[in-house]
Structure formats: structure tokens, C-alpha cells
Amino acid sequence: ECLEPYVDAWQDEYTVVDCDEPHGGQLIARIAYDAGEEDDAPYPGEEALRAPLYLACTGPAVLAQSAAREYGDLAVQASYPVTAEQWDDGHREYSCFVSRSSGEPVTGSLAVPRPEQ
Predict the structure, then answer these.
(1) Per-residue pLDDT tens for 67-91?
(2) Residue from 90, 55, 7 nearest 15 by CA
């Protein structure tokens, strides 16, 4: 989902726009935490949840590497459950976002295309 305006990964609301139009950011993936699949799994802590995010959000299955190379200032952010309460309420995924550190817009999608289902 391409987003305009885009401030950061922690916004309360986003406006989805056509990726062919210039946009400030893009949600490129939502990925479930492996450790949180069981309903009663304890909250692992913010540091443990944050540790794998950059590599996971920039991996070749998530970020379209050829499209990303067009931007020398690509910034990757992720949102995730930061409290035990959020975790206990069932928030067991992280969301990967990309934008440009310059604030300049992106045109086109930076996400790896998903197979049609």
C-alpha cells in the first residue's frame, strides 16, 4: 500500500494512494512474529521484537531490490507491538515501511509483488 502523506511507521491513520503517483511512503509487508504464534506466548520484550526487523524488512522477499536501488536515500521503518498489553491483545505482527530520508516522494512500488491468490 502506497501512502500519502507519510510521516512515520507509527501514524494512527494512513491514506492509501495509487503507487504510480508520487507518494511519501509505502507499507511493503506485514509479517507475523514466529515467537507469538501461540495465544499464550509471553511478551518477549521490545528489544527482542525490534532486533530482526531491519533485515526482515529489507530482505529480497519483501523489498524489491532493483526498484530500491533507484533511491540513494531509502529509509526503512517498522512498527511492532511495543507493550505487553498490545502483545496480549493479539498484535503479533510487524509492519515494514519504506520512505526517503530526504522527504522526496517515491514513484512506483518498492514491494516485491505478491502472487495472485
Answers:
(1) 999 999 999 999 999 999 999 888 8
(2) 7
